[in-house]
What does this fold into?
Amino acid sequence: MPTVLTVMTVMTATSSLAGAQLKKPPKTITLSGCIETDGKTPDRFMLTDTKAGMKYHLTGKDFREYLGRPIQVDGGVVVKGLKISGGLQPSANVAAQAGAIDPSRAVVQSATSESGTGTPVDVQDFRVKAIRQAAGSCR
It folds into this structure.
């Protein structure tokens, strides 16, 4: 019986080692852009990535000294829980008139108006690990 116990111990050690190797460190992302204050909350700072055009709320450092200057930041997007936002498509007015409104007019109305819920665009949080000055200027 000692042989069986030895085989099980080796198998357990091998499987725990394989599980440890599967966990990869989070990927570091580099963003470039200019630091600006958030219009709604002046004590929060935002960066619009010059490559992708995406906006991020910055966390993890003090950004006051970089305000209005071009920078590069290294870090990662903060993953939050699932958030579903949206509204009625077409708008509630067009949906209520179904059948009583000309179909071509309904298409134009739904294409040119926003949903009636007024949900804001979600800006992701970006946890900064390193900041460095970048070349260029902010407009």
Residues 5-11, 115-119 have pLDDT under 50 and may be disordered.
